[in-house]
Design goal:
Elements: H1 2-19, H2 33-37, E1 42-50, E2 56-65, E3 69-76, E4 84-91, E5 101-107, E6 110-116, E7 122-128, E8 137-141
Antiparallel strand pairs: 1-2, 2-3, 3-6, 4-5, 4-7, 7-8
Length: about 150
């Protein structure tokens, strides 16, 4: 049973990375999700941040570390090296938003949050084309899951 679970986790992790891979020919961000989150974290889910028109401007990754710790990182695939409105959020309680944590700012490469989350979570991220709220935004929002 343990071997089956490990194999399933490995397959799902690979699928998550492949679904949020940058578009071919895109500039390369020098940072990776595991590098940004730190030692012990592994990717368990990911989503591409898309504009209303379907353009993919970044990847939003959920990483897990033993002990109930999560990390959410939004890696920019567009506007790399340019400070634009970028967001990463870890939602820890669907009814009490004060329990949710986020990182938002005008960042050049990524936004990241880390936090303890022993219950069900959701995650989100975005990449904007300008600083602040003006302009177009590419967004990714997960459903609730990853419950212990």
């Amino acid at each position: 049973m343990r071997l089956l679970r490990r194999t399933l986790v490995a397959v799902l992790s690979l699928a998550a990375v492949l679904t949020a891979a940058p578009p071919a020919g895109a500039a390369t961000n020098p940072y990776t999700p595991t590098e940004v989150c730190g030692s012990g974290y592994r990717i368990i889910s990911s989503l591409p941040a898309k504009t209303d028109g379907g353009s993919k401007w970044g990847g939003v990754y959920l990483l897990y570390k033993s002990g109930g710790y999560n990390c959410v990182v939004t890696i920019k695939w567009s506007f790399i090296g340019v400070a634009t409105d970028t967001f990463a959020g870890l939602n820890r309680d669907s009814e009490d938003s004060s329990q949710n944590i986020h990182d938002r700012g005008n960042f050049k490469y990524y936004a990241v949050v880390r936090g303890y989350a022993p219950q069900c979570i959701s995650y989100a991220g975005w990449v904007g084309d300008k600083t602040g709220d003006a302009g177009t935004t590419a967004v990714a929002v997960s459903g609730w899951g990853w419950c212990d």
